[in-house]
Design brief:
By secondary structure, the chain is an alpha/beta fold. The protein is built from four helices and five strands. A five-stranded mixed beta sheet has the order 1-3-2-4-5. The protein is globular and about 30 Å long.
């Protein structure tokens, strides 16, 4: 499954009401580590298609969501299960380290 672009309009439907875990990447186009993390998240989206949803929130376009989840450093990755944040990471990590950090 391709990554899903998240806005305040689709956040509830795609993340909070998801029946599978959702990895949400809070990122920005000007963020170097965010660009390094992008292909890692694409791989996870392909590898776990149907088991885990991967979503992206551009913090410049969606400042309300960034504030709601207290994003102060990016990239910040949050794992949502049943509409609740269960784990977060900040900064670039290789795929296996990210999966381990998120408990996946």
């Amino acid at each position: 499954m391709a990554e899903i672009k998240i806005t305040k309009d689709n956040f509830e439907a795609e993340v909070l009401n998801s029946h599978i875990p959702v990895i949400v990447d809070f990122w920005a186009t000007w963020c170097g580590p965010c660009m390094m993390l992008a292909p890692v998240l694409e791989e996870i989206a392909e590898q776990y298609d149907g088991e885990i949803k991967v979503a992206k929130v551009n913090v410049d376009e969606e400042p309300e969501l960034a504030m709601q989840f207290k994003v102060v450093s990016i990239p910040m990755v949050a794992l949502f299960e049943n509409g609740t944040v269960v784990k977060t990471t900040v900064g670039f990590m290789p795929k296996e380290a990210l999966l381990t950090e998120l408990g996946l």
